[in-house]
Amino acid sequence: MPVAPPGPQFSVREIPFSHCGSWFDFSPVIAERTYADDVHLVSHQTGLHPVLRLVPHAGGARVETTLTAVPSRLTWTHGAGQIELAYESTDTVRVRGDGLGLRIVAAAPVLTPFSGAYFLRDPVDGSYLFTLYETGRRYRVTVLSGPAVTVSGAQELGTAERGVVLADEGAWEVAIEEYDSARPPYRTALTFDQAAAAAAASFTEFVTAVAPWRTEHTPAAELAAYVLWSATVRPAGFVTRPAVLMSKHWMDKVWSWDHCFNAFALAPGLPDLAWDQFQLPFEHQDAAGALPDSVTHSEVLYNFVKPPIHGWALRRLRQRMPTLGHDELAEAYRRLERWTRFWLTARRVPGQVLAHYQHGNDSGWDNATTFDSGRVVESADLAAFLVLQMRELADLASHLGRADEAASWIEGADQMRAALLDLWTGQEFITRAAGGRRTWTSTSLLDLMPIVLADELPDPVRQALADRIKSHLTPHGLATELPTSVHYQADGYWRGPIWAPATVLIEDGLRRSGFTGLADEVSNRFRALCEHSGFAENFDALSGAGLRDRAYTWTASGYLILAAAYEHRRPRGSATHESTNPLS
After folding, report:
1. Whole-model pTM?
2. Sequential DSSP letters for 320-353
3. Predicted confidence (pLDDT) per residue in 100-118, tens digit
């Protein structure tokens, strides 16, 4: 079998080391913005929980090592020796060392009836077992070779250190597993190198499917694919399908608009996985038709919703997934219809055409300045998304042979577009208090989002929006707050930093509106930003520095979406752009 290439090298301080399908990773990130001195096994079942601390040692003392990672292998290197870790399966890793020892100890030092890890040696097979309250799972260490280990804290309560110490006397190897209540003693036919090779092959297959177009002009494509591959988990708990979490740092959920961008990026090469991403939140639709705010292993939240970009997303998925059958489209229509009617009933004041948000969180732009003068608002972005969603429902209804329903959706979309244009002052869109007369404007990029309607807008409106979008364009991309605004904040979440979803949506709207040169600049600058600063949750718009969670999948997907489109536009043998529209 050919040997798979090692893949991109990365820092585990930035991107967790993990494997597609696994619910745990290896990283020093043990809580929000919290970095430990050592790598930990971190589980994402029932939330983010550091489980085991892995401490290299030599001569009886902890040593500083050089830590390197590629998709198939994590390596600690020191002058005295080396330790390597590789996934054998989604719930099992192999660890081996030579010349360096390793302490594998419980990360939570305090054991009470309601916290921490209980540790024992299993009399059935001689393995070492940690039972963790926080995850509700067991973690088994089986010694495969090497000198005798030292054990501390077995069956101890309180604050005792609990774990095993592998000596630095020559070579050794162990397996570490995560499971529920019980499983047969560990057995394997694979060597460490075979396990690592299988992981490398799995990633290579994934990146080949997701980014077959990659060239030297899109150098971050492999790392972006790794961010998606490593953040994918197998079905468990409330996660009913294989799911790409937003991160295997602390943002370890699926939010009900983030998933659309991951689906979009995966659709051409992995349509089944893409469809899983799109459908997952819809499987938790409530009785009113609303999607949850977020879904994760042990929790579904309904306290807020997210913006209805799903019609926009479904149109693009259908273009990239022509094999979607009648039954799948009928189910998608039923779910999208219920989601749209939620906005047209529960979120529309009687007598009003426009729907409203109850909080900035509902828009996905939590603290954008659009909401500074009021939170319960009828905003231009929401109206634009609903127009697109009703257009998609009309198209689906027609495809499914439901002509009357198609006509009704067309009528609804036309009425919503007319109401949206009533918010236009001749220069900009206003925001209005829901059901009231009080209006205001802001310098948020969110107010310019109606560009997604493209040729549904009059030419002067499109031109004015494009001109204002240009004023948000920094050397690194689209600032979410006008950089000259008094409200601009370098790390202000939606009050300045660059975000992937805003970039992808507006780039698409500009391109479909005919502003291809500006769309090219938005794409070029965002791709360059990711190539330099990685796939952070968001970025300082003026310095380009990555902010917050540093391994965010919708950022990686945004890069892949724009990079794929760029590669398809670019004439072969040239780095120049064509004025075509692969996103329409």
Report:
1. 0.95
2. H-TT--HHHHHHHHHHHHHHHHHHHHTTS-TT-S
3. 999 999 997 677 777 889 9
